């Protein structure tokens, strides 16, 4: 089985570092990070990750706009996206699901449970 490739797109360096350390340590996944929507799109095109964790609130290009650009791009359209967001209500979850977003994880998240939340959302086995 090949190692899962995760792309974390978040403008907060701390969130990138915590997610990277936890996903690599807990799940043994390879994690790439990006600090903006534009950087995330470029890395998604070139790296073709298994999933993208995408912050909603980012300067210049927010997560929803980034997601729409990923969906419009034939190279990135099939990559599942999970949102990381501080604002998550039932109405938001429904809207995200209608847009084609796989899931949304509330921030602040529990670093030790992040890999399990991703695995459940995607139907992955978490065994290393």
Automatic annotation (TrEMBL):
Modified residues (4-aspartylphosphate): 55
Assigned keywords, A-Z: Phosphoprotein
Annotated PROSITE patterns: RESPONSE_REGULATORY
Origin: domain of life: Bacteria
Source species of the chain: Nostoc edaphicum CCNP1411
Stored CDD domains: REC_RR468-like
The protein's name in its UniProt record: Response regulator
Single biological process term from Gene Ontology: phosphorelay signal transduction system
Keyword presence, Phosphoprotein: yes
Pfam families recorded: Response_reg
Domain Response regulatory residues, every copy: 5-122
Presence of the UniProt keyword Phosphoprotein in the record: yes
């Amino acid at each position: 089985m090949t190692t899962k490739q995760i792309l974390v797109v978040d403008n907060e360096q701390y969130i990138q570092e915590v997610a990277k350390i936890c996903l690599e340590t807990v799940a043994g996944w390879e994690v790439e990070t990006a600090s903006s929507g534009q950087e995330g799109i470029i890395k998604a095109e070139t790296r073709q990750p298994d999933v993208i964790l995408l912050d909603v609130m980012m300067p210049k290009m927010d997560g929803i706009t980034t997601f729409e650009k990923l969906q419009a791009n034939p190279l990135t359209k099939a990559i599942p996206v999970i949102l990381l967001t501080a604002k998550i209500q039932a109405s938001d979850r429904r809207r995200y699901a209608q847009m084609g977003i796989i899931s949304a994880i509330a921030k602040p998240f529990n670093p030790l449970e992040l890999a399990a939340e991703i695995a459940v959302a995607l139907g992955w086995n978490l065994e290393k």
